Amino acid sequence: MLPVIFSVGRFTLYTFSIFLIVAFFAAAYVFWRKSREEHYPEHDLFDGYLISIMMGVVASRGAFVALHSGVFGLNPLKWVDIFSLPGFAILPGILVGLGVLYRYTLRERWDSFEVLDFATLSLALSHALLWLGSFFAGTNFGNPTKLPWGMVFPTVFDQRHPSQLYGFLLYLALFIFLFWVESKYRTFEWYRDKRHSAQTGFLFSMFCIFYGFFGLLMAMVTPSQLVVFEFALDIPIRVVIMFFGIFFLFHRAGRTLALRRPRLPKFGRASEV
To answer: Residue 269's pLDDT band (boundaries 50, 70, 90)?
Structure first.
């Protein structure tokens, strides 16, 4: 682990900050490549991507500052100093960023869910890199454990779950799966539902399902990250996201949850005797 790369005077370059930059460019490349393959106007689409990223970063940083108000206080310089005081609340940033991108695609009259497919593919890769960056930075470690692969991280003296490596492996596997299935899902008969072509939004649905499920798995070995008035919101939010992904996948597959009323037999008038 190498939390600090170098320090000169009052300036400190943290490892996580470097991984944050690498994750941004890697995710941007994936998004650009997929949009180019589908012949979207590159400049306009990338403008929307950058706007959504900026708004997501602002929301993510703002939520982190609010959740750690005792550290940041009312000093705006600390709020924006991501190099000396790194930290982001990822979930609010994702929700805001995807919401902004969705609104942008509506304004441009594009296929919103296809663009969200590109975005979630890039999100899976960026998540893997950020979890790996957390490991090298020695942050976001898990709960105490006596398992043989437990590790001792900076600021603690007991063995902890290397939850950063769990997250890295989970989201790397998700990225590989989404990258593979992106060219396959249009041939899935259960998803096409007898239509000539499959609806977009498959990758977005899968990302929501696995993002919620991974969050539930990680909640077993990591402390809560979103705590408001001493109430942990991590598990309820992940459950909502997972079931939203399931219902959205169901909807895009052309299925319906409407329950049909049983058809009662029709009887004629009884003949008079």
So the answer is: very low
